[in-house]
Amino acid sequence: MSPAIIILSVFFILPILFAVFLSFTKAELLGDVSFTFKGIDNFTRMFDDERVMIALKNTAQYVIIVVPLQTFLALILASALNAKIKFKNVFRVLFFLPTVTSSAVLTLMFVWILNSQGLLNEFLQWVGLPTYNWLGDPAVALKGIMGMNIWSTAPTFMVVYLAALQDVPDSLYEAAEMDGATWLQKFWRITVPMLRPATTFVVIMGIVGTFQLFDQAYIFSNGSGGPNNSTLTVVLLVYQYAFKNLEMGYASALTLMLASVIMVATLLQRLVFKEEKLD
């Protein structure tokens, strides 16, 4: 077990402990390395930092919208592809293509589509409709990232649901058909309850992933979180403080705060989707 323990310690446990240490200091990591103990100053500073509140609001909005929609879309796609339709293997491959494509590449594609001279505005102009500055409007920029991630992430969870659907006994659907159940009743009364463990996994992974949104927001805004901080997320803010302002102590405190938020959100989700005990 020694190799696994060493790797786990070097790449997981030690970085966490070092981040905890940095969060209580003002660290100088370039040139003459030094650490000045600051107590809880880095944590109390968050309450006076307006950008932290903005980043938390944007991240929470992103999580609340993206997680339910991508979970619902993944379930619908999996149910459709599990049915007896022609060319379903072809559809599975086509739906899964966004997942195997680099996130940076997908983001650049959407930037090219949504910019002022992009394909979307070219199409609107071609059909005689007014164009729009999609990436420059604070009310729309984050929505563009949401749409892209729902489209690209749902196929991953679709595969999870497809695997879970293989364990649902056909006899349940046959019995329901004999009782005169409609397809909607079968879906709601059989499919959804039987996929409860898969849904728990999908929602947990969705929550953890969406709270860590960084690369798409970075590429959309060129690292600024704009326009008007509308795409500023907590992880992007951590990046700015750590690697632009070189405030490693404050950035580490923000990281621990985000980890705490993710842990609380995950625990709450576990309470909502807790397993029913059989008598």
TrEMBL record:
InterPro entries tied to this protein: ABC_transporter_permease, MetI-like, MetI-like_sf
Keywords, sorted A to Z: Cell membrane, Membrane, Transmembrane, Transmembrane helix, Transport
Annotated transmembrane regions: 60-81, 93-114, 194-214, 249-268
Coiled coil: none
Chief location: membrane
Domain ABC transmembrane type-1: 56-269
Compartments (UniProt record): Cell membrane
GO annotation (BP), single: transmembrane transport
One GO location term (cellular component): plasma membrane
Membrane topology qualifier: Multi-pass membrane protein
Family per record: Belongs to the binding-protein-dependent transport system permease family.
PANTHER family per the UniProt record, alphabetical: ABC TRANSPORTER PERMEASE PROTEIN (PTHR30193), INNER MEMBRANE ABC TRANSPORTER PERMEASE PROTEIN YCJO (PTHR30193:SF37)
Name of the protein described by the UniProt record: Sugar ABC transporter permease
Annotated source species: Paenibacillus psychroresistens
